[in-house]
Specification:
The protein is of the alpha+beta class. The chain contains 6 helices and 4 strands; from the N terminus they run αααβββαααβ. It is about 50% helix and about 15% strand. Helix 3 (about 45-85) packs antiparallel against helix 4.
């Protein structure tokens, strides 16, 4: 190699070029090539669709499982409660959860808190009350709302008891409730 050849080579490369290999067309080869072929080209949308489908299936299965289980356990609890109340001969009281009855317009009191227990003497009556517990609670709540108006004084407890017994007995078919006990009576 002569000095003339070296000078020509130096003229060709001014030092600003990158030291990258070139292919036959004179273009540089990119470091990262795009995937080619139908199987590699559409991989990420397929993965995304697969993940979405899996999440939807798992969510639907979970909702179905828990809704069926909740209904199953509620039905089992109701059956056990009905059997327990019907089989209990020593304690014939059936206590409902407390009722909170708000007063309409009064400055002295805001609501009435009342817990009621029934004396159930018959097994069929006990089963019917347990089976229709929500309906009985609704009847009692409506009766209390009608008899307790926030503008006037609260009626005597004996009147409230008679009104509740009368309304509940109209809804029952297996027997009648004779005694009602007020476990808790609080005006707040």
């Amino acid at each position: 190699m002569t000095s003339q050849d070296v000078q020509e080579i130096e003229k060709q490369f001014a030092g600003n070029e990158l030291d990258e290999p070139a292919d036959e067309a004179g273009e540089s080869i990119p470091e990262k090539r795009r995937p080619s072929g139908p199987e590699k080209r559409h991989q990420w949308p397929k993965k995304l669709y697969f993940l979405l489908a899996t999440a939807l299936c798992m969510g639907a299965a979970g909702i179905g499982y828990f809704s069926v289980q909740e209904g199953y356990y509620t039905a089992e609890r109701e059956k056990l409660t009905a059997k327990k109340v019907a089989a209990d001969t020593k304690n014939k009281l059936f206590t409902l959860k407390p009722f909170v009855v708000p007063f309409d317009k009064t400055e002295k009191s805001t609501y009435l808190l009342l817990t009621i227990s029934f004396a159930l003497e018959d097994r069929k009556l006990a089963e019917e009350v347990v089976k229709n517990k929500a309906r009985v609670r609704g009847i009692i709540y409506d009766t209390l709302r009608k008899n307790i108006s926030g503008t006037g004084p609260v009626p005597p407890l004996a009147e409230l008891k008679k009104a509740v017994i009368r309304q509940v007995n109209t809804a029952l078919t297996a027997g009648q409730i004779k005694n009602l006990y007020v476990v808790e009576f609080l005006i707040v």
